[in-house]
Amino acid sequence: MNQVLKSTDVLIIGAGPAGLFAALHCSNRNVMVLEKNATPGKKLLISGTGRCNLTHDCRLSDFFDHYGENHRFLKNALHAFTNRDLIDFFNTNGLDTITDKNGKVFPASQKAEDVLKVLLASCNRNNIEIKYNQAVQKVEKTADGFKVETTSSIFTSKTVVITTGGMSYAATGSTGDGYLLAKQLGHSIVPPKPSLSPVFIRDYLMGALSGVSVQDKVLYLYRSNTKIGEHKGDIGFTHKGLSGPGILDFSRHILGNDTLKVNFIGLNPEEFREELIRLVEKEGKVALQTYLKKFELPRSLVMHILESQLILPETRLAEITKSQRTQLVDAFCRFPFVVEKVGGFNMAMVTAGGVSLGEVNHGTMESRLVPGLYFAGEVLDIDGDTGGYNLQAAFSTGFLVAKSLSGSSDL
Asked: What proportions of the chain, in percent to the nearest 5, are helix, strand and coil?
């Protein structure tokens, strides 16, 4: 039979970045962390392919463009603990950081394990107790706070913080436990779905281009022949579909049977059509493949597109027929890819959906339904773009929980 092991002031469920960061910043409170795995931070250790993209070096005001429709919810958290604060935290605790050409911030060692070591060392200095192999099955509100049941124990606490993450990479322990616990306490859950995930394309013919990528291209998303959105970013070709930051960031909006149309050359269809016509007199003898070099596309991609349209690369501009011109405009300005499916939770970097934000106070991260219940990190209905935005959100929301619990304006 389960028994009460210990009572505490603050009980945090989940020893990932949000949970650990909330724990180590809870000043003057008796804090305990419960972790279902035998070790902490399993998903953190594989983030950034093991390099751990901590945050982004952009201006704080630019962060809000990278969290989809729910970005306003993070305003208080990101102001309470900024990307500069995060970099300073790790630098002060002995972990230098570096910033790549795209503004992504990594530990200088390029090792996620060094990030986890800093978090755990900080928890240790603050006497944070972490109990492992404690999969929480039930949370109940009581007159004095909460009763939390795990597979082997019962804990009581005045306050509970749920930081269990989402459902991506289930092997790390992210299996949606927090959603079940939140529902037990009366919260609504926005249906979870994969985000930051590659896209599989129906009848895909570009497998030979696997590893090839293009930069800063515009994608248009169509559903039932109606344009519903657009995005700009880098695109990578895989054996079975599309990936790269532009696709990953846009994936939260994509469904099976949607059509993605890619503008590979940066001109709108009419501009491209008019240019092809205008060049006939001045550069009519120039071969099509030579002309297309101006757009700085990978040669293999250009050859594939021309082959798909049955147009010879050596065709002179003056020899292009009206129908071929229409084909070229469609192929280079709005090349269509019909989506078979978006990669599942086993491939998605993060989870879209989660605890409904309308039921959480964005200024404190406390539940609006259950006093003393808090949320932080990916368990909330927030998902960011690639580039360190999701980890920053985890750290910032975790910090805001601690700030709220400690009743301090400056932790």
From this structure: 40, 25, 35
